[in-house]
Description:
Shape: elongated
CATH architecture of the largest domain: Orthogonal Bundle
Amino acid sequence: MAVLALRPNLNRMPSDLTDRELLARVLRSDERGWTELIRRFRGLIFRCITKVTGKYAASASTTDVDDVYAEVLYSLLRDDMRKLRLYNPNRGTKLGTWIGMISVNAAYDYLRSAGRRPVLDRVEGCPDPHEDCDRTPLDNLIEKERWDSFNELLGELSDKDRTFVDLYYARGMETDAVAEEMEISLKTVYSKKHKIRAHLRRCLDRQSGDSAIADLAAAGA
């Protein structure tokens, strides 16, 4: 991995390291590097979390935000820092953008687990957690490529299954509302949900390393 190839001078102050050099030190379990990583990206993480909680859970408390922040830190450390190791600077994405995406996903997961399912704006779109977070045109292009690739997978679904994805995932409708809208039983709703997720998982597992979404299967594991 390109990041691991960097071997920063351990005598340099962590604050003087580039993001890639800092990550290389963090992945070697350097405690000072980890401390600097958190210092450098703490504000970004909180901005991304509050952007989600503020938009989809107006009643979210400071405790909620702190809980999500703790989950983000845990997810960065979990499984030998697997999510940090998935970061590939060769795709042109900044490390801050990658950590921001992890933070946004953690916030959505928290709201879902708390029974406050976020209503995504569009299945073709993507929540923009990176406004005012050093987002570049290249970041936007990479994100567009990822969503174009994902939508190709959705194109393999039947019309009814795409309608289900739109209602359940994009609009955030509850299962009973989806059943009523599609005129199907609750049992069929749950069946469709599991079938579609299994199909997408199989499709993601087949993605090559050059695919813009090849990392999603591993990141979601």
